[in-house]
Design brief:
Length: about 325
C-alpha cells in the first residue's frame, strides 16, 4: 500500500487559503460596511480610515487573484481544441443564440437528420421556451444533398433517403416563418457535389465543424456524415478558427450562388444542364477521399473544371 506523502507547511497554508478566501472576502466586506455605518464617536477618524484602507486592500488582493484565475482558465480553454458529440449540438448552439439579438445560421448537412431534426427544428419550435420564433430576427440557410440522389438502391446515398421527407419539413417550416410578422426567413438549397465540410456557422463567428468520410462496416465502405463528432471553433481561438470559418463560408457561398434562388414555397425546378453528374465526376475524386485528415484540409473546393449540378428548394 503506497505511503501518502506528507504535505509541506506551504502546501497546507495554500490549501487553507483557497478554501477560506471567499468567506474572508465576505467578512472583509461586512467589516468595511460596519466601519462606515458605526457612529463616529466610537472610533477616532484616523483609526477608521486606516482600518478601511487595510480592509479594502485585502479585498482588492483577493479579487485580483480571482480575476487572474479566470483569465488563465480562459486562455487554457482557447489553447485546447473542443470536440463535441453530435448529441450535444443543440445545447451548445442554443446557449450561443440565446445571447444574440440577431441570429444567422448556415448549415451544411447530408440528409439533415441530426442538424435539422435535432437542432434547427427545435430552435424554430414556437412551443419550446428556447425557440427563436418571435424573440429574435433570424436567417437560417440549409444546404442538403439533392433527394433525387438518395434512391434506396444507391450503394452510397441510399441510406440518406430521408432527405426528401426532411426537405419537405423544412419547406413547411419556411412557409410558416415567412407568414410571421417578424422579418425572419429559412432558405433551403440542394447540392449534388458532396462538400467535405459539414456543420453550423453561427453569425460568422462560431463554427461547429465535421466532415464526410468513409468507414468500413461489415466489410463494406459506408459514408459517414453529421452523426460524428464536431470540432468547435471561433474567430478568436488559437488553433485556426478564422481559417476554418473562411473555408466553411466559402463552401456555403459556392452552394448558394450556383443554385437558383427560390422562395419558401417554391419546390425548386430548374436543374442546370452544366452539372458534373454524380459526386465524383467533377474532378475532385470520390466524396470521401478528402475526409481522412482534419476537417479543414479539403475545404478549398473542387479541383475539377465541371460545375456540379445544384438546385434550390
Amino acid at each position: 500500500m503506497p505511503v501518502e506523502r506528507k504535505k509541506s507547511l506551504v502546501e497546507r497554508l495554500r490549501e487553507g487559503y483557497e478554501k477560506a478566501k471567499k468567506p474572508v472576502a465576505y467578512i472583509v466586506m461586512l467589516l468595511a460596511v460596519a466601519l462606515e455605518t458605526l457612529p463616529g464617536e466610537l472610533f477616532p477618524e484616523g483609526v477608521r480610515e486606516g482600518a478601511l484602507t487595510g480592509l479594502l486592500l485585502v479585498l482588492a488582493l483577493i479579487l485580483m487573484e480571482m480575476l487572474f484565475e479566470i483569465h488563465d482558465r480562459l486562455l487554457r480553454e482557447r489553447r485546447s481544441l473542443n470536440v463535441l458529440d453530435s448529441n450535444d449540438l443543440y445545447r451548445e448552439i442554443r446557449q450561443i443564440v440565446s445571447r444574440e439579438r440577431e441570429v444567422r445560421i448556415q448549415y451544411v448537412g447530408v440528409a439533415g437528420r441530426h442538424g435539422w431534426q435535432n437542432v434547427l427544428e427545435k430552435l424554430l419550435n414556437e412551443h419550446d421556451p428556447d425557440s427563436l420564433v418571435e424573440k429574435v430576427r433570424f436567417h437560417i440557410e440549409v444546404a442538403l444533398l439533392d433527394p433525387e440522389m438518395c434512391r434506396p438502391d444507391d450503394p452510397v446515398f441510399g441510406r440518406f433517403e430521408m432527405a426528401g421527407a426532411i426537405s419537405r419539413q423544412i419547406r413547411r417550416r419556411a412557409e410558416a416563418v415567412e407568414a410571421m410578422p417578424n422579418p425572419s426567413r429559412v432558405d433551403l438549397y440542394f447540392y449534388r457535389h458532396l462538400p467535405n465540410l459539414l456543420g453550423f456557422l453561427i453569425n460568422d463567428n462560431y463554427l461547429f465543424l465535421t466532415n464526410t468520410y468513409f468507414e468500413r462496416r461489415h466489410g463494406e465502405l459506408v459514408l459517414r456524415a453529421g452523426g460524428s463528432d464536431y470540432f468547435v471553433y471561433d474567430k478568436n481561438d488559437e488553433f485556426g478558427g478564422q481559417e476554418f470559418i473562411t473555408r466553411f463560408a466559402g463552401w456555403f457561398e459556392w452552394i448558394r450562388e450556383t443554385g437558383i434562388a427560390g422562395g419558401a414555397g417554391e419546390s425548386g425546378g430548374g436543374r442546370g444542364s452544366g452539372g458534373a453528374g454524380p459526386p465524383g465526376d467533377a474532378g475532385a475524386g470520390p466524396p470521401g477521399d478528402a475526409g481522412a485528415g482534419p476537417p479543414g484540409d479539403a475545404g478549398a473546393g473542387p479541383s475539377g473544371s465541371g460545375r456540379p449540378d445544384l438546385v434550390v428548394g
